């Protein structure tokens, strides 16, 4: 009996270790590109000097997203910069003097294109997650055959009641503008993200998706 209990205990520990590993994997943020568009007149060979500009008044969020995108572009061999390094905290894109000053800084820094990032929509969906019963593995045969065998098996069953949960869905858009063509839009990509567990993880996943999409579209020049 002691041997059976010890074996059952070890099996249960392994089960929980596996569950913990699965939860860690599940916690990663997943970004799905829903569509991309490219202007046929986009510069042949792609762009090498790109400024990343997050369109948000939240300076903390903007800085994190811009930093992750710039890092990903640099990994692709692109000279990438961030608007947070060029524009002052009180920058107002609705004022002519702010635009003029920013344009001068962009030109002086040698950027040929600007990659913008913006949140275009946010939705919430409520769904019901049904209850489940998780059984601990029992290595011996015939666990139904006697009282203590059945007792030990069912004792380690874990029931999780059903519950309602709300999913958060974020729809993002990135646009690439060619400064050599008077700021003409040459590429656009849209994506959706479900339940990002943190801004950092979202920014990292989103940056990789966008950088890869730009590379695959022939818009990045090494």
N- to C-terminal distance? 68 Å
Secondary-structure-based class equals alpha/beta
Helix count from the secondary structure assignment: 6
pLDDT averaged residue by residue = 79
DSSP helix fraction: 25-40%
In total, the number of strands is: 8
Sum up the overall morphology in one term: elongated
Q: Give me the side-by-side strand order of the main sheet.
A: 1-8-7-4-2-3
Order of helices and strands: HEEHEHHEEHEEEH
Describe the biggest sheet? 6 strands, mixed
Rg result: 26 Å
Summarize the structure in words.
The chain has 222 residues and is an alpha/beta fold. Helices cover 39% and strands 31% of the residues. The chain contains six helices and eight strands. It has helices at residues 2-26, 59-75, 83-86, 96-108, 147-155, 199-216; strands spanning 31-38, 49-54, 79-82, 113-129, 132-134, 158-160, 163-178, 184-194. A six-stranded mixed beta sheet has the order 1-8-7-4-2-3. Strands 5-6 form a two-stranded antiparallel sheet. Helix 2 (59-75) links the parallel strand 2 and strand 3. The model is unreliable at 1-27 (pLDDT under 50).
Task: Detail the topology: elements first, then pairings.
Blueprint: H1 2-26, E1 31-38, E2 49-54, H2 59-75, E3 79-82, H3 83-86, H4 96-108, E4 113-129, E5 132-134, H5 147-155, E6 158-160, E7 163-178, E8 184-194, H6 199-216
Parallel strand pairs: 2-3, 2-4
Antiparallel strand pairs: 1-8, 4-7, 5-6, 7-8
Helix pairs in contact: 2-6
Task: Sum this structure up briefly.
This protein has 222 residues and is α/β, with parallel strands linked by helices. Helix content is 39%, strand content 31%. The strands form two sheets. A six-stranded mixed β-sheet has the order 1-8-7-4-2-3. Strands 5-6 form a two-stranded antiparallel sheet.
């Amino acid at each position: 009996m002691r041997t059976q209990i010890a074996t059952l205990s070890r099996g249960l520990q392994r089960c929980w270790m596996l569950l913990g590993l699965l939860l860690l994997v599940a916690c990663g943020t997943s970004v799905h590109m829903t569509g991309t568009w490219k202007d046929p007149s986009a510069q042949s060979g792609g762009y090498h000097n790109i400024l990343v500009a997050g369109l948000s008044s939240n300076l903390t969020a903007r800085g994190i997203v811009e930093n992750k995108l710039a890092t990903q572009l640099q990994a692709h061999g692109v000279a990438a910069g961030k608007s947070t390094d060029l524009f002052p905290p009180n920058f107002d894109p609705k004022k002519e003097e702010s635009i003029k000053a920013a344009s001068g800084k962009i030109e002086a820094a040698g950027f040929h294109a600007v990659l913008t990032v913006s949140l275009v929509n946010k939705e919430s969906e409520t769904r019901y997650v049904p209850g489940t019963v998780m059984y601990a593995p029992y290595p011996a045969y015939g666990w139904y055959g006697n009282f203590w065998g059945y007792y030990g098996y069912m004792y380690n069953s874990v029931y999780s009641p059903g519950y309602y949960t709300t999913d958060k869905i974020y729809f993002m858009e990135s646009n690439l503008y060619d400064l050599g063509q008077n700021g003409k839009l040459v590429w656009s990509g849209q994506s959706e993200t479900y339940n990002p567990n943190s801004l950092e993880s979202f920014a990292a996943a989103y940056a990789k998706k966008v950088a890869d999409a730009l590379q695959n579209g022939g818009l990045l020049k090494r």
